Amino acid sequence: MEGCRRGGGPPPGARPRAPGPPAPGGAARWGAPPCPPDGILATPVETVPGRDVPAAHRRLRQIVEEYEPIEVILGLPRSLGGGEGPAAAKVRDFAQTFARSIAPVPVRLVDERMTTVTATQGLRASGVKSKKGRSVIDQAAAVVILQNALESERASGLPPGEGVEVVV
After folding, report:
1. Paired sense of beta strands 107-111 and 72-76, if any
2. pTM of the shown model
3. Opening angle at CA 101, ends 110 and 58, nearest 5
């Protein structure tokens, strides 16, 4: 998940964020970082295994219930050229199902290009060994996705990415 703000209201002019799974390659694992109501910083919570999609949906719904987010941000894997392939299609399907399951909490898709690279470089620069495992990298990438979304919104004044419409 990319992150969250709990209820209680965002700072003036800001929209609150919430947990959402990044889906690198279509769902091996989902990182789950929340961010505080001020939307300044995201921190990792856990990595949810994604191979069992129903189990991932259940756990992510539990995280949404626990953190009471106002909005969910999901990472959308795009190619470096901006196109969408099979992984993006899987994420869009996941997002649609997930959005229905957590309605009325809104869900947004944001570009996650280069976030794993950025996360890996940041971990390496911090002295974290790559032996820590893929789940640590996925959590760090989820934080990068949420931070990018928050920074984009602060800079533009517009919600990041695109909304997921709940189709019944």
Report:
1. parallel
2. 0.73
3. 95
